[in-house]
Amino acid sequence: MFLLILCLVLTTGVLGFPWFRNDIPNGYKVPDPCTGQTGQIWEGVGHNQEPGGGPRNPFGLDFKTVGFKWTKELCQKDSDKDGRTNGEELGDPGCTWTKGGTPSAAASGHPGICEPMSNSSCVTVNKDIMCPSNTG
Ligand SMILES: [Ca+2]
């Protein structure tokens, strides 16, 4: 049993916590904002790299701060400072979504990556973001 737990801990350390995607609206449909990634999904929503794992992006840090839950506070915050709240980006503009429910809108942005990425005011926020290819 101990080994099983240890194994789980080690695995999640590498992969991130994929089940957290059930804890935010449209967690499986967050668009990848990197150049040339149109239509692609950013799997590790709270992380600097698309597959997840490694350091957290601003949204991941805020998500951790509120206890890995979709709270009104988190929903109304603009973690990546691009002028749109996390709720607006994830398709819950009214901050009414609860776990298991259907979001009122589709995800229209990434809550942890300042968009558009080419915007000069986003460069500092996005300095640790690793795009899937070298096109971003
Ligand atoms: Ca935002």
Automatic annotation (TrEMBL):
Keyword check for Metal-binding = no
Superkingdom assignment: Eukaryota
- Record key words, sorted: Signal
Output the Pfam families linked to this UniProt entry: Temptin_C (PF24784)
Disordered: region residues: 77-110
The stretch of residues making up the signal peptide is 1-16
- Compositional bias (Basic and acidic residues) spans? 77-87
What InterPro entries does the record tag this protein with? S-S_Temptin, Temptin-like
UniProt keyword annotation of Signal present: yes
Outline the extent of the Temptin Cys/Cys disulfide domain: 15-113
Record protein name field: Temptin Cys/Cys disulfide domain-containing protein
List the lineage, top down: Eukaryota, Metazoa, Spiralia, Lophotrochozoa, Mollusca
